[in-house]
Specification:
The protein is mainly beta and 228 residues long. The protein folds into 2 domains: 23-136, Immunoglobulins (Immunoglobulin-like, Sandwich); 144-226, Immunoglobulins (Immunoglobulin-like, Sandwich). It is built from 1 helix and 19 strands. The protein is globular, with a radius of gyration of 20 Å. Residues 1-20 form the signal peptide. Keywords: Chaperone, Fimbrium biogenesis, Periplasm, Signal. Residues 22-140 form the Pili assembly chaperone N-terminal domain.
Length: 228
């Protein structure tokens, strides 16, 4: 019997739920507040007949799986029309206290082979959904919506430098530069810096238009800032 396994990555940013085959999640991002005992994420199997093996883990922006968080259960079977809760726990209180930290929650859904597939060629598609996990310390100044207005932009050659002086991670829903929409998702760390390569066809510009994704995974207000 020939089996082919294919992995598809799905990054869900804006929909109210993320779908991976017959599997959905009840959130597009998790905000883990300092002092919170745990956070939870609900996984649901919408299929009427398919069984899935669900694997979950947390890694950092570089793909390292050794993080201050654990997620349980890391591996379980989802029966049709059932749901299960993933528990996310912070096991390390040494994270920065003056800014947000960000990690990735990964949920992979692997369909189980049916009994009538024995002896047949089988294409198995494992679909992985990724969503951001934000650790938010207590008493950070301001709020994410106000922080979005503090971003500064500098244009040098074919690069747009974005500086984020705030304590909050900024993820763009939309970034429009010189009439060109920057298509790749752009995330600027708290108290951090990011350089974005501009498309070759970008016209002259003196300002940028953008919106930031809020805590609920939706686009915030449209903002305009001058470019230095």
């Amino acid at each position: 019997m020939l089996r082919i396994s294919t992995a598809l990555a799905a990054v869900c940013l804006f929909a109210p739920t993320c779908f991976a085959g017959g599997i959905s999640l009840n959130a597009t991002r998790i905000i883990y507040q300092e002092g919170q005992k745990e956070a939870s994420l609900t996984v649901q199997n919408h299929s009427q007949k398919d069984v899935f093996l669900v694997q979950s883990w947390i890694d950092d922006i570089n793909g390292n799986k050794k993080t201050p968080f654990i997620i349980t259960p890391p591996l379980f079977q989802m029966q049709p029309n059932k749901n299960n809760a993933l528990r996310i726990v912070n096991i390390n209180n040494q994270l920065p206290a003056d800014r947000e930290s960000v990690y990735w929650i990964n949920v992979k859904a692997i369909p189980a082979a049916s009994e009538d597939s024995a002896g047949k060629n089988l294409l198995q598609i494992a679909v992985r959904t990724r969503l951001k996990l934000f650790y938010r310390p207590k008493d950070l100044p301001g709020d994410p919506a106000s922080a979005a207005k503090t971003l500064t932009f500098t244009h040098t050659g074919n690069q747009l430098a974005i500086d984020n002086p705030s304590a909050y991670v900024m993820t763009f829903h939309e970034l429009n530069v010189g009439g060109k929409l920057i298509k790749d998702p752009v995330m600027v760390p708290a108290k951090g810096h990011l350089s974005v390569k501009l498309p070759a066809s970008t016209g002259a510009f003196s300002q940028v238009q953008y919106s930031i994704i809020n805590d609920f995974g939706a686009a915030g207000a449209q903002l305009t800032q001058p470019v230095r």
